[in-house]
Amino acid sequence: MTTEKGEQLRQQLIAAVVKKRAALARAHAVVVRLMEPGIPEAEFLSLLWEIGPSNYADIVDERDINKLCGYPLCSNLLEKVPKQKYAISASKNKVYDLTERKKFCSGYCFKASEYVKAQVPTSPLWLRDRETRASFQLLPRDIKIIKKRIQFK
């Protein structure tokens, strides 16, 4: 290999590392921004392109640590977090793990967050400039979450 080709390869590697670090720094800045309450929907949707699934999980976890609902568009505080780890449904004969669900203030916020999380691109952050930018959708608010009320007489 000639020294000219070696130098060219070295410059390409340095450029790739710089690009990767810049993408990771942008993702970190997005995580920090989305930890705050009161994020506008348009800003939230535009920032999703800059993060990966692990970054989104970090956002949910950090908001939970700060006692905020894990869904970035919700500004509610987590007040009454259940102590139990599992829920048992006798009618469906199933046991549900509540670990992730406890990070959200409501069933809607949990479902909306999972809906957004499924859309976050899995490709490496530093290679996204080669892809077409995805259009993200939010879970519509008019979806009814049915709560059964038991009335005792």
From TrEMBL:
Quickly give the catalysed reaction.
O-phospho-L-threonyl-[protein] + H2O = L-threonyl-[protein] + phosphate; O-phospho-L-seryl-[protein] + H2O = L-seryl-[protein] + phosphate
Biological classification of the source: Eukaryota, Metazoa, Ecdysozoa, Arthropoda, Hexapoda
Whose protein is this, by species? Drosophila kikkawai
Span of domain RTR1-type? 46-129
Looking at the Swiss-Prot or TrEMBL record, what is one Pfam family this protein matches?
Answer: RPAP2_Rtr1
The UniProt similarity line reads:
Belongs to the RPAP2 family.
The principal localisation class reads nucleus
The gene from which this protein is expressed is LOC108077250
Superkingdom is Eukaryota
Keywords attached to this Swiss-Prot or TrEMBL record, sorted alphabetically, are:
Hydrolase, Metal-binding, Nucleus, Protein phosphatase, Zinc, Zinc-finger
Q: Which PROSITE patterns match?
A: ZF_RTR1
Its name, as the record gives it, is RNA polymerase II subunit B1 CTD phosphatase RPAP2 homolog
Function according to Swiss-Prot or TrEMBL: Putative RNA polymerase II subunit B1 C-terminal domain (CTD) phosphatase involved in RNA polymerase II transcription regulation.
EC number(s): the record gives: 3.1.3.16
Its annotated compartments are: Nucleus
